[in-house]
Predict the structure.
Amino acid sequence: QVQLQESGPGLVKPSQTLSLTCTVSGDSITTFTYSWSWIRQPPGKGLEWMGVIRYDGYTYYSPSLKSRTSISRDTSKNQFSLQLTSMTPEDTAVYYCARMSIAGPVYWGQGTQVTVSS
C-alpha cells in the first residue's frame, strides 16, 4: 500500500523559506515512469499544482511559482522535498504531496497546514 506523509513547520514568517518533506512508503520514488508532485490549497480556494519531480530526478514547476519553487529528493530515504522562498500570507495553504499518473494524482498525503504570519 502506497503511503505519503508530509512533514514540516506549520508556521512560517513572511519572507522566510518554507521547507517540506514527503516521505513515501510502499513505493519507490525512482520507479520508472512514476512522478511525484506538490499541490496546495489555500483557504476557500481550489487546488493549485506547484511542481513535480520525476523518477529520474527531472523537475518541472508551475510557471506562476517557478521563480520561488524548488523540488528535490533523497533517494536513500525515499523522500522528496519542497522549498518555497519569499513566503507571504498568500502562501498560507494546506500543502499536499502526491504520486502522479497521466490522469492526475493517484495517491495523496494527508496534507499539512502551513500558515504564514509574523
About this structure: The chain has a mean pLDDT of 96. The two ends are 39 Å apart (CA to CA).
